[in-house]
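User: Fold this; tokens only.

Assistant: Input:
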Amino acid sequence: MIDLPFFDDRHRQLSPALSDLGRELAPLAERGEAGDVDAAGVEALRVFAARGLCRHLVPREHGGEGLELRTLCLIREAAAGFSALADSVFAVQGLGSYPLSLGAAPDMARKYFEEVAGSDAVAAFALTEPDAGSDVSSIATTARRDGDRYAIDGTKVFISNATIATFFVVFARTAPGNKRALSAFVVDAGTAGLTIEPMTVSAPHPIGRLRFNGCMVPAANRIGDEGDGMRVALGTLDFFRTSVGAAACGIAARALDESRRRAISRQQFGSRLADFQLTQAALADMATELDAARLLVYRAAWLKDQGRERLTRESAMAKLFATEAAQRIVDRAVQIHGGPGVERGAVVERLYREVRALRIYEGTSEIQRLVIARTIIES
């Protein structure tokens, strides 16, 4: 258990469920690297569900343990260093189902949340488009009302869990010309008019492109009222963004651990790498940045759990610093390993590929800096 002042007894009680999580997830990382990406992702969710961890993605009113940000961060940090694939699949299980708590019809929310808790359903969050990443207002996918249904047309890209999802929360424009007139819909994976295409990225992940061609969805599948999509999207991202920083801490912690072992075991010029002052300085910087990142991440999570409605500045700082620090820590880890650090199959080589996306998804580092600056200027 990470020793920080932001935890209480219920977080310490979570330790047994997390203590050997890495042992079960590590083989799944290897399966993903070998190309068995979808099966590894589905199996990862089964591992989380068997330990009762998926129940932490479900509100209490729907039979779960409640959505508590510190708990989510602890789970992601424990998982990410052993399998970024498993961590991401778990996180998107939450990201894709959380919008249901922001306005879905109670019966529909109950049905999906029950399946999410047991990993019988796999969720995905379909927001990003070819020309709409950080600029959500540029979404071009449309949803046209047709009686008691909506016809959805458009394309989504870089949708995590796309190739294993059983349902998607899809954001589409319901009023042409109005940049903020977005609405959110639950779309089952087997719906006619929806085509799912795998995409390949640097680190194995069940990610893909969604094409909607006259995809008919019941009006009852809309989350909230027409025009609530922006609120639902930003509210979901505001909650989960901090946890991206926690995943970064998990990857950084694994990189530091691998570096420590390498420095102690590797002999050069008749001495251990660990005996050289430059190696010691690198390890010291890595450990210091990791601790600083954790403090920012768990401060933001604690504030949310205390009832803070918005975490705009704190979550932006947590994600920005933790992901940028993790990138530096992993880079130093590769340097400490030398040639073997860039060999395919080395742990730090895999971490190097896995950490990179964290500085992009759920708000790039550049966007986080703009958000933080705005809170300073407008305060």
